[in-house]
Amino acid sequence: MRGVPLEIACDESGSEGGKLIGGETDVFAHAGVRLSLDEAAACLVELRRRIRSPAVEYKANHLLRTKHRRVLEWFLGPLGPVHGRAKVYLVDKKRLLANELRALAGAEIRPDDAILAAFNDVLRTRNRRDPAAGSFFAMAGDTAELRAKVAAARDAEILDPLVPAILRAVEYWSGGGEQVLLVHDEQPSLKGDRLARIESAPGLAGVKFVDSRTDPRVQAADFLAGVARRIAEDELNGNGDEKLAGLLAPYVDPASLWD
């Protein structure tokens, strides 16, 4: 007889579907936290006490404000509420796109911004006459083999990192042999084949989608995903904060597409 599954609350930051270049964010972050409802509620109470904002709903941006630097350091630090009880899967979106381009078009291709943008566009459109298609194949080589690979990749929706991130969360948290119940913020895009792929993952006892405003555990995951994404983006863009990067490091999943 199976025991009670391990409940892991999850949320993401930086999700823009398959748009990996030219969007609002450069990094995708997916966080999972292992907290009870009471522990997560206490975390939110303490954040409110420390931040003292009149906002009805607190978000990661509250922690990221300069005046709340000490609160952020506490949240991520060894005395914080999620230390040793959370993991974050990070994806450098541009790097993911470049990897997929090389896999389809050959390792010798140079993934500059122009061809990456065209590649991203051609995988996100169903219109064969879209100008992006002509642009991409002109740069990458217009062969029947490449067109077939692109069509297959488009059908497989290979660019959106959300499903792979959720599957990785199941893999990580079930690594000790426990069955995992994921409590995840509502995601309208997770249905049909995408949801079926998640539900068939080994180690998954089930997945429950909730409104983050009603579950403090998911709110804690939202905080962690949001601050992790911003810290990672600053590092990626040459504006990194050594101390914050050091505080984040223990949380970063080693399977992340991140250096």
UniProtKB/TrEMBL annotation:
Q: Which organism is it from?
A: Amycolatopsis roodepoortensis
The protein, known as: NAD-dependent protein deacetylase of SIR2 family
A Pfam family cross-referenced in the UniProt record is DUF3800
